[in-house]
Fold this protein.
Amino acid sequence: MKKVLLILFVLFSTTIFAETISLASWNIRNVSSNSRSDAELGIISVVLARYDFIAIQEIRTDTKALDRLVKILKDDFRLDYSYIASKKIGNSSRTEIYAFLYRTDLVKYTEGSAFVYSDVNDDFIREPYCAAFLAGRFDFSICTIHTEFGDGKTEPREEVRALDDVYRAITKESRRDVLIVGDFNLPANDDAWNDIESLDNFEPAIPLHTPTTIADKSFYDNIWYTKYSDEVQKESGAVFEFDEMIYTPAMRKEASRQVSDHRPVSVEIKID
């Protein structure tokens, strides 16, 4: 019954906010075909259907689970989604695939625009994956990354400090609005963000109110955007606590195992 109510809520929401899109980023724990049952993907789809565009991190081995999710979203929600995905990114022991999943009736991929950042300085364990999209009149470039957790936060700080070079690489080719999203393994108030904050007033959409991870209550996931963007709706940044809405408090471990140890973060974007 709870899943039915959530589905109705999702369908009702997508009708109300037709003049905006809800853009999200989500580290879905090991979302690969061999590690996910149909029941788990069914729960994940309930969360995904809340959003019109989702940057996904931690796809470990293949995109077959994404194909299954696209089918579930079509069959259960009557929503048409598509996705683009990177190759496996990382070193021999720490690789994953990034993906952008989006509603095809609201968002269009700019053909040929996707690329893995050319990391000539070897700043990243897993290089950012970037692409351009158009939603209504909102023309944007987006990069997603999952920084290395590191020992004592050393590695994520080094990777976050290098994101200003990623930003410059994107804006060198285009004047689209820019978003950098993902699991940064650092909160948005860490000093490592100083370099990129100084560029075009780059700022985070997700406030440090609600933790984005379930177990350790950290604030690692965020959506960074250029402050001058009129389309990004200020103060609309949100964290969806699916573990509390779909599960009981006693089932927190099950929520992490069956869905993810991270919660999705999102922001509303005006597209008209």
Notes: The mean pLDDT is 91.
